[in-house]
Amino acid sequence: MTQHQPSRDLMAEFEAAYAATPPWDIGRPQPAFAHLAETGRLRGRVLDVGCGTGEHVLMAAEAGCEAVGIDIAPSAIRRAEEKADERGIAARFMVLDARHLASLHEQFDAVLDCGLFHVFDDEDRGPFVAALAEAVRPDGEYFMLCFSDEEPPGWGPRRITQDEIRSAFSSGWRVDAIEPADIHVTLRSEPVRSWFASIARV
Question: Domain segments of the chain: what residues?
Answer without folding.
Answer: 2-201
